[in-house]
Amino acid sequence: MFTSPTYGKLNIQDIPEKIRIFFEKHEHYDAPVKIIVGTDSQNFDQTKVVSVIAVICEGHGGIFFYEVTRKPIIKDVRTKLHEETNDSLQVAEQLVGIMESEKRYEEMYLNCPISIHIDAGNSIKGKTRELIPELVGWIKSCGYSCQVKPDSFVASTIADRISK
Q: Is the peptide bond before 150 cis (omega within 30 degrees of 0)?
């Protein structure tokens, strides 16, 4: 179950329609409408995982949807980033499956690229730098573009804030 500050609780099957409405309201702007999926997690007594679907039209606003799941605690950074990336890819694949199955989403699907944001950065002192090539390769091999920190704001800002 996803939550939206705008629309409340939704199943993932309901999200493409909300994206289509946003797309149609914003398609006349010069800025493209983008769909971005990102995931972040935090360790508590369990690992709280937050996956976010953000839909933005740069300079003209956006909407987002998030899902919170809990998993047994994941302490290893590599395993944690693989879980986050896998969750983002699963959400993206679900969206693609829904959008490809219905004619009403065709224009939106063809004009709104889906990209994945990874909560990993190139900081020399960071623990995630060495994982970036394999994560980026994995995402690109699945057909999506991706961003890492500092450009991965859906994972490193939106999902991060909800996960805390």
A: yes
65, 92 Cβ separation under 8 angstroms: no
Which of 160, 154, 161, 129 minimizes the C-alpha distance to 38? 154
Tokens of 83: 């879980």
Confidence of residue 161 (pLDDT cuts 50, 70, 90): very high
The pLDDT tens digits for 105-129 are 999 999 998 999 999 988 888 888 9
Nearest Cα residue to 135 out of 65, 76, 79, 75:
79
The model carries a pTM of 0.95
DSSP annotation string for 65-128: EEEEEEES----HHHHHHHHHHHHHHHHHHHHHHHHH-GGGHHHHHHS-EEEEEEEE--TT-SS
**Exposed/middle/buried for residue 37 (C-beta within 10 Å: 0-12, 13-18, 19+):** buried
